[in-house]
Amino acid sequence: MKTIRAAVGVLQQKDGKILIAKRQKGQLMAGFWELPGGKIEADETPKNAAIRELREELGIEVEALSLHKTMQQKYQNRIVELHIFNIEKYQNQPAGIEGQTIAWSSINALKNYQLLPTMKAFIASITLPKKYWITPSKNHQSPEWMAKFEQKLRQNIRLIQLRSKTLLDECFIKELSRKCQQHSVKLLLNTPDKTFTQTYVDGFHLTTSELLKLSHRPCSDDKFLGASAHNLNDAKYAEKIGADFVVISPVQLTKTHPNAIPIGWENAHQVANSLNIPVYFLGGMGEKDLAKTIKLGAQGIAGVSAF
């Protein structure tokens, strides 16, 4: 199967709106919206291709850019290897130089456009934060547990997994959700009684055993869906059923699971670069590991006591 290499750019305004372009008649998947960019020539680096394509398509001169993510998308008769760059500084006002329609859209409004398949994973990667806090799984509602939860809300944590191995009172969950909303924090539910219809949370997290029992995405697209994985096969299956992100673990030795065999940095790196959706590293993580995880292609780190 033929592989086409392409480079695209993320142009973002101060208000958070992102520039998208509509594929023209005669192109593969005409009418779909995508990030601006195009094919990488045989003698080009992805970075140089992004600079050239954005000059040709939008009339801008890129002065600073950095790689956001590389992903692959399989179509019926080809594979597209997509290099996505954050455009950090440029000159001139973007315009549809080649006759294409362009638009500035907020992240939330992107759902109103007919987007290329790679766009869903891209949206998740810019929406999700670098840290994913997992609550202690016992002693919910105790003063110590609640103090820890309140502390995280004040520490600029933007994504929390409410984890419990036993049933939790619905009123208690709703109260935590209310607190999270007040701090602009997303709360994902990981409890034995989740039905994936709870409207008062922002999404759900699947254990590996729950994941492998599913054949399709169990919740609506307006909710986040995370999944735990312990190897590349698990992670790929999570992507297949429609998970928005994966947590791979344990990357390193961890005090909470001392008998668990770490998969190591190299295997974690392979997972992060084999998936289009974001991947968090879990297990023995700390603030000092955040930069390394991002350099290896991960979204960031997850943990109970990692930060």
The figure for the number of domains is 2
CATH class of the largest domain: Alpha Beta
Give the tally of β-strands.
15
Give, in order, the helices and strands.
EEEEHEEEHEHEHEEHEHEHEHE
The biggest beta sheet, please? 8 strands, parallel, barrel
Question: CATH superfamily assignment of the largest domain?
Answer: Aldolase class I
- Name given to the CATH architecture of the largest domain: Alpha-Beta Barrel
Query: What is the mean predicted local confidence, pLDDT?
Result: 94
The number of helical elements comes to 8
Using only CA atoms, what is the Rg?
20 Å
Give the CA-based shape.
globular
Strand content: 25-35%
Helix/strand structural class = alpha/beta
As for the CATH topology of the largest domain, it is TIM Barrel
Low confidence ranges? none
